[in-house]
Design goal:
The chain is mainly α and 48 residues long. It contains 1 helix and no strands.
């Protein structure tokens, strides 16, 4: 195809855990996000 271009690409990953995610899981996830150059990585308390 010609005449088209991608202007933006978004990534969203959401996960819930009733007991919450332990520190090791949070740290590993944040390190992976940094490696993959994600703009944001955060954990919220409780299930939304």
């Amino acid at each position: 195809m010609t005449g088209y271009r991608v202007k933006a690409l978004s990534k969203l990953i959401e996960a819930d855990c009733l007991k919450g995610f332990d520190g090791v899981t949070q740290r590993t996830s944040k390190e992976n996000c940094n490696t993959l150059k994600f703009d944001l990585s955060e954990f919220k308390k409780g299930i939304q």
